[in-house]
């Protein structure tokens, strides 16, 4: 039964990958907005704290044609900045009388003369102007974390602009802390998870490659976002589950449970995107992408996000439920399908109670700044929840949660049927074909705990039966004698 369902799905995923494979993102002319800009790197060589009147007045940052050094002021930086901010708006309004890349200090300026600003001298370290030094002046509201000499920075680069506007400070370089954090994560996974942890990391890398080499470029090339998400998500699911948990019957049950739940999420997501009239154009990033690629199906992209976003948490639930049912059957081989289903469902209810709350809090945490804005505006909860910006996240959260809840009875029922037929046999191999003695199980520690609880309950039931039922004790002794024989 399992093979009859999974083989066609596997073939469809392979065919989908071959047909939809993009071969890279399509080229386009850069706009210089947001992330769609050319960047170079630089290093801070000097940090000065000066009165703002000295950094944004006429001639504060002169251009030196002899050396090629440029002086770009706050207004120049904002001209080529990546994303407009509140500080950018105030600085732009203050510079309405300026010209030539410097902010005029006329009557319209709102900057106090005694306010302190930061002027950075930055040496360009990459690109055609390597070695060039530029200056950047920043207001106090733009420097939340102070800059240090020797610190690496990211520069927005516009080769077609005037020399004074060619470079502007865009971001800081964070390569070392990000690599360090990734190394600590990998170390923790390997130390705690052993060989299973190594396979999990390999699956994570493959998932990332599928997203970056297939899903994203294929969507940009005009393929249906939902179809791409289903094919890419299917590939990620198959690789992650079979690589981490081995080619066993219970891994296949987890795959089937995940697949059925994803189908439900896709159906509900499509239905409520239509009913709620969601457009998907709720962020600057989506608006920019839609402007660059007008033929992109933005609503399909929204639904594709539902599918990809739900995949990870569904894997967790389906694997846990399948493992629980198998351990219950191994602890008591006499359990029927119905008994396995009821016991597994009780375990799943505890899991669901915590996982649903985790989903809601994760989305709320990601949208915290947005929720603060609505709170400041003193709008009612109903008005906030029904605005498209929040409604999109509400639909995403609730659709994913419904699929998550449905995955418990679906996976438990499938696992009970297959486990009853197999008699609760443990797979002999490890993850991917040999991770040691316990490698064939989903999470050995959890499985041992379930087996111990079920075994204790069975022994207590047998003991109680021996005391309460006539002849029960003799039957128990006879079973023990047969077991010894």
Automatic annotation (TrEMBL):
Chain ranges passing through the membrane: 6-23, 175-195, 201-220, 227-248, 254-273, 356-377, 397-420
Highest taxon listed in the record's lineage: Bacteria
Entry keyword set: Membrane, Transmembrane, Transmembrane helix
Transmembrane helix in keyword set: yes
Pfam families: YibE_F (PF07907)
Gly residues compositional bias, start-end: 97-108, 426-443, 468-477
Span list, region Disordered: 53-73, 90-116, 424-443, 463-485
InterPro entries associated with the record: YibE_F
Stated name of the protein: Putative membrane protein
Lineage of producing organism: Bacteria, Bacillati, Actinomycetota, Actinomycetes, Kitasatosporales
